[in-house]
Amino acid sequence: MIDLKEHPHRRLNPLTGDWVLVSPHRTKRPWQGQVEKVARETRATYDPSCYLCPGNERAGGHKNPAYTGTFAFTNDFAALLPSSPVDELDPHPLLRAEGVSGICRVICFSPRHDLTLAEMGVEEIRGVVDTWTDQYSELIHTPGIGYVQIFENRGAMMGCSNPHPHCQIWASSAVPTEIAKEQAAQEAYLREHGRTLLADYLEYEVATGERLVCVNEHFVALVPWWAVWPFETMVISRRPVSGLDELSSDERDGLSDILKQLTTRYDNLFEISFPYSGGFHQRPAGSNKEAWHLHAHYHPPLLRSATVRKFLVGYEMLAMPQRDITPEAAALRLRELSAVHFKSRV
Ligand code: H2U
Ligand code: ZN
Q: Which one is catalytic: 113, 164, 166, 293?
């Protein structure tokens, strides 16, 4: 019998069909890297050289308005363009190409240059949730758009170009690879069980509690059974809605609260502004509303300290992802952290 705390094993991600190798025995090996204290960064509330601060000029000469809440604009260096051709070009059966058109936007979460989601109030986060919802609702019904990806790169380690709190939206004609995998799995699950895959998964996780990080009436944050990144989490709506546009006002409050709780715990883990890439997965245009279950994924790279990160290289690049610390151990650590942000403690 395998012991999940002792024996190397692999776990299946039912949303994608991908496996992850778990090597719990390796966490017992001695760690000789030093655990350094990182100096606290202090930032001004306004930075005259920031291209996201209110009133400042961006690349290409656009000037930001004196915004007071959230602010959305078209990315000046958009990866997708609205009217580019979407036809196919296949010079050989093995060499296929397809044009992809789309819309790329940037959303500032706050006029304050020095804040992060973790340090914003729940009411301000609610403003961000409302903007995400408005953007999704508009873009998912835009002709030619197949999928709307909302994502945030937080911290320089994740390639974030600017500390001003912001996220990106890429709305594309094509449905991206990860979404296509999750769509196929969720549709197959609904056909077989008559419920969403994540409703059944959530029911099990809430009953056992082992991988939960924090919960409220409307949302659950947990380290998924199949987590690849050391402190990877998912935020899942308790009610099986297919997108942000189907959340009630109370549920939007619940989402704001769970994001505040989760990002605060993340920051408290190493007492830094915790880097991650995270974002929402929700129904593509014209897809089955019954099958899709709204959720967010958070993929933080840090492993042991503010600077020791996990790389997906070597075996991971050539064979499959691997982790040492178990998802259960990661969830326990996050769950036991304070829900009060370290910067606001006296
Ligand atoms: P990231 O920090 O996740 O890279 O997002 C910042 C985005 O802002 C990035 O996609 C855009 C970049 O193209 N940007 C502008 O649209 N205008 C600017 O003046 C600078 C950066
Ligand atoms: Zn700024």
A: 166
